[in-house]
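sorry for the late reply, my laptop died twice this morning and i had to redo everyting from scratch. anyway the thing you sent over, i finally got around to it. pasting the sequence first so we're on the same page, its 161 residues, then the predicted structure underneath. double check i copied it right bc i was rushing
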Amino acid sequence: MKARWWVGILLLFLVLGGYLVLSPYFALRGLQAAIERQDAAALERYVDFPRVRENLEADLNAAMAKELEKAQDNPFAALGLLFAGSLIQALVDALLTPEGLASLGTGKDPGEASLEEVRQWRLKRQGLSRVFVHHRDDPQTGLVMERQGLRWRVVRMVVNP
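ok and here's the structure:
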């Protein structure tokens, strides 16, 4: 009787360990399938759009401010700053679509890359609750997924502006 308890506990730990190891891969496959099918409802399950949008806008605004700071002597820098907000908004809107996500890391504009490009994505662990998903050809640009409860969701998009 005691041996059955130990076997049950061992099996429970094996299942939990398997979940910790394999669940981000299952989430990545679901995200890839949602992008390929252009299924917005399924994509909502895998992407925390408000959080990704907020983080991406902040990153792009910071990069734009850094570039404009370098060009302080340029009289057109202030003019560029006026248009930067709408340009960044348009870029974020284009990237947060199935076509935009598929183009991530390919060097192509959203809509130019095939939706099948997502099959080239690789996963790199950054701890027990965080992974970085990137295209095979560009390990610097990609998506950060975090565990939220029992599921994994994209919470940040890392781009090289």
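The chain has a mean pLDDT of 86.
thats about all i looked at so far, will dig more tmrw
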